[in-house]
Design a protein that fits this description.
The complex is a heterodimer of chains A (115) and B (109). Chain A starts with a strand and ends with a strand. With 115 residues, chain A is mainly beta. Chain A has strands at 5-7, 10-13, 19-24, 31-37, 43-50, 53-56, 65-68, 75-79, 88-95, 105-106, 110-114. With 109 residues, chain B is mainly beta. Chain B is 0% helix and 58% strand. In chain B, the strands form two sheets. In chain B, strands 2, 4, 5, 9, 10 and 11 form a six-stranded mixed beta sheet that branches. A five-stranded antiparallel beta sheet of chain B has the order 1-3-8-7-6, with no helix packed on it. Chain B is globular and about 40 Å long. Classes of the chains: A mainly beta (115), B mainly beta (109). The interface between A and B is medium-sized, with 24 and 23 residues.
Chain lengths: 115, 109
Amino acid sequence: NAGVMQNPRHLVRRRGQEARLRCSPMKGHSHVYWYRQLPEEGLKFMVYLQKENIIDESGMPKERFSAEFPKEGPSILRIQQVVRGDSAAYFCASSPRTGTAGELFFGEGSRLTVL
Amino acid sequence: QKEVEQNSGPLSVPEGAIASLNCTYSDRGSQSFFWYRQYSGKSPELIMSIYSNGDKEDGRFTAQLNKASQYVSLLIRDSQPSDSATYLCAVNAGNQFYFGTGTSLTVIP
């Protein structure tokens, strides 16, 4: 039973390039969350998606960042025109449900370095 | 503003002692409560979940929830050096999971 799968695990981009991070939730999970974590800091919520729907994107920067969770395939977090401040670990997590008993399971993360 | 507060630490305990980690939350509508362990450079790993007032034990770990005081705690008995990590408290309210900034625990051999 595979866990939450993220790729790439490590990504290096130059300023101005695009970064695409992928996340396949655990089997049977339809809720996907993306978090960003800077070194020595806590997890910052970015976006919550269900299949084909963005439910809550209140943590996403207004520009350059977008996310999707299509009917088929993984969820994708896209960062356009990356800047050095985007360097961070990006974690995807999935849950089978929200509310009581909705546990959240994390992938291994994608570590983005912007040169 | 929904907040989850934790002491950042660092918390140091000798091997074999009890480590006590605390967390408070602001949203009285919170429904579910979780403790995650995160080793340096790794992803958060769920170690305990608790949904009702009282204690919940799992091996060396005990989670305690007091909704009236909006307080969650995690006790680690017989602490081991391998327990050295950052412990994140998380609270689920509606669609959202809110995380504290974590408490760094070091278990000294």
